[in-house]
């Protein structure tokens, strides 16, 4: 089973921007239900942004709202996360996965995870 391939991470200073990309496969891509997760040091993995319906409506957790933008290209099976005004607390390994958002909680559809891409934000 093919896994997602995340890329675009790096090291930036606070206030900087990064654009993450995720290449999924036919096995791991969900039309209109892809999400970005992150795992900060010493913390559990958490969802931060998701596409929740056929109109591409996004959902964001409060900590990234107004700074992050999720988008997807269903034809290419690609998902993107534009991250602006980055903060040190955004430092984490970022992953994409198919997921549903139910009552504000991110529910991964499968247990297939890519290697992630590291984002490090310095103050």
How would you characterize this protein structure?
With 123 residues, this protein is mainly β. The protein is 0% helix and 50% strand. It is built from no helices and eleven strands. It has strands spanning 5-7, 10-13, 18-23, 34-39, 46-51, 58-60, 68-73, 78-83, 92-102, 105-108, 117-122. The protein is globular.
Largest sheet: 7 strands, mixed
Total beta strands? 11
Helix content: under 10%
Percent in strands: over 45%
Rg calc: 13 Å
Poorly predicted sequence stretches spanning 5 or more consecutive residues: none
Number of helices: 0
- Average pLDDT: 95
Q: In whole angstroms, how far apart are the ends?
A: 39 Å
Task: Output the keywords.
123 residues, mainly beta, 7-stranded mixed sheet, 4-stranded antiparallel sheet, 11 strands
Topology:
Elements lengths: L4 E3 L2 E4 L4 E6 L10 E6 L6 E6 L6 E3 L7 E6 L4 E6 L8 E11 L2 E4 L8 E6 L1
Parallel strand pairs: 2-11
Antiparallel strand pairs: 1-3, 3-8, 4-5, 4-9, 5-6, 7-8, 9-10, 9-11
